[in-house]
Every structure is written in structure tokens, then in C-alpha cells.
Protein: Putative transmembrane protein (PGPGW)
Amino acid sequence: MRARAAPEILDTTEEVTVKRVGVVVLGTVLLLVGIALLVLPGPGLLLVLAGLVTLASEFPKLERYVDPVRDRAMKAAEDSVSTPLRIAFSVAAGLGLIAVGVVWGVVEWVPLAGWSTGTSLILSGLVLLGLLGWSYRKVRARRGTARSRG
Structure:
């Protein structure tokens, strides 16, 4: 007869494995979507950064890429809200993605019609607007700190 391992040990090992796989999948998805958004409209560098930070928690060798990407992502975030015109275009793009997503979900004759495509467009618009708001608050807070020092 074989001796059985204690159920608690198996549960802990399985939980760690599931958690690790989840972190790797999430980090990989964020990284790939971020890379795609580098050439498509959207906050590509911020998602690349989020993916790298997530993956670096499991793969420490990736940490050396985090700081350079963070610096570039923060510069891009600042640039995206540097003028009212850029903010207006970014808001229009986010709202446009949401509107197109609704159309894709409702209208049946468009290519790849359906809520799966529509939902991804809507989520892209919401992510864009959320990151735009985050960038605006971050830059405004940084400028406020710089003014209080100077």
C-alpha cells in the first residue's frame, strides 16, 4: 500500500500552482495587449508596464526591464495629457470606441458582429478613459508638488 500525502500539503501546492499560473497568464495577456496597443490606439506602454510588473513577481530576471519601461510609460502618460487638445482627442477616442462597441453588438451586418467584439471595444474605451483620468490626476499632482517646492 502507498502512503498518501496529507490533503493540506496537496491543497497548498495546488493553490500555489494555480496562483502562479494565474499570475503568468494575467501578466502575459497584459503584456501582449500592451504590445498590440503600441501600434493601435490605446495606452500601450502602461499595459506593457503592468504586464512586466506582474510577470516580474514570478520571474525576477524581468525586473531589470521594469524601470526603463516605467520611465517611458510615465513620460507617455504625461504627454497624453499635456494639452487640452490631446485630452479632448483621447476622450473622443475612448467615447468613440464605446460607441463603436455598442454598434458592433447591436448591428448584425457589420463584420464580426456580436457582443464578443462589441464588448472588447467597449472595454478598450473604458480602459482608455480610465488610464487617461489616472494620467491626468498623476500629472496634476506632480505639477502641484513642483509648484509648492518652487
